[in-house]
Amino acid sequence: MTKKSKMAFILIGPSGCGKSTLSKHLETHFKNDVVFHYSLDTCRLQFAGNVLAAKQPATEAEAYRIAFECAEDRKSEFSSFAQKEWRDALKADVVIVDTAEMRKKRSARTAELRAAGFTVWGVQVMVPLDVVIERQSTRGDKAVPEHIVRSMYMQQQEALPGDDVDFVLVVDGTKPNQQLLGEIHF
């Protein structure tokens, strides 16, 4: 019996495109593997755990807001915490990276993933800007202001096979059950 290679999926797209929904589908698909979902949102919530327990936010949106403020107020500590979480992620069989990072940061993560034995898939979640803005207006959790969503959308950089990722998948994020639109292998 041969051990299958470790796989990493770097989810790419602006806030509200469906990265978190897609990550849940991936986690379900790889339920028999050790899966680590690396998300800065999750890191912030874990980092702010004691603060959240003390404040007992009434809504998920309030919890995200408090966690974000806590991470911003203690940037150096949060950075160390997030780096530790990343090191833990590299020990898994499957890593799902859900961070909305630009290419330079993605390429650095890809280098670390490859050094740890991962094959890296870039998953571009495609959604029109008007759909992303509409989703943000109805979110009950981590709603991002429209001007930030517009900025993120305009600055997003697609995954490029090579230094950025090993393979690219393109997913239609407008469908309730996200659909694979295409696959590029190099």
Quick summary:
This protein is an alpha/beta fold. It is built from eight helices and six strands, in the order βαβααααβαβααββ.
Characterise the protein shown here:
The chain is 47% helix and 21% strand. The chain has 186 residues and is α/β, with parallel strands linked by helices. The chain has one domain: Rossmann fold, CATH 3.40.50.300. The protein has a six-stranded mixed sheet with strand order 2-3-1-4-5-6, with helices on both faces. Helix 2 packs across helix 5, helix 4 (60-73) crosses helix 5 (75-89) and helix 7 (129-138) packs antiparallel against helix 8. The longest helix has 15 residues, at 75-89.
User: What is the radius of gyration?
Assistant: 17 Å
Total count of domains: 1
Task: State the end-to-end distance.
Answer: 27 Å
H and E string: EHEHHHHEHEHHEE
Number of helices: 8
> CATH superfamily, called what?
P-loop containing nucleotide triphosphate hydrolases
CATH architecture: 3-Layer(aba) Sandwich
From the 3D structure, determine the CATH topology.
Rossmann fold
Mean pLDDT: 86
Q: Percentage of helical residues?
A: 40-55%
Q: Structural class, from helix and strand content? A: alpha/beta
CATH class: Alpha Beta
Low-confidence stretches: none
Strand content: 15-25%
Biggest sheet architecture: 6 strands, mixed
